Amino acid sequence: MTITEEPGPGEAAPDEKPLPVIPQDMPIAKLIGHYVKYRDAIKAKEAEQKEALKPAKQMLEALGNRMLDILTREGSDSIKSEQGTVYRTQRDTASISDPEMFKAFVIANEGFDMLDWKANTTAVKDYIGEYDEPPPGVKLSSIFTVGVRRGTDK
Question: Looking at the DSSP assignment, which residues form a beta bridge with residue 9?
Answer without folding.
Answer: none
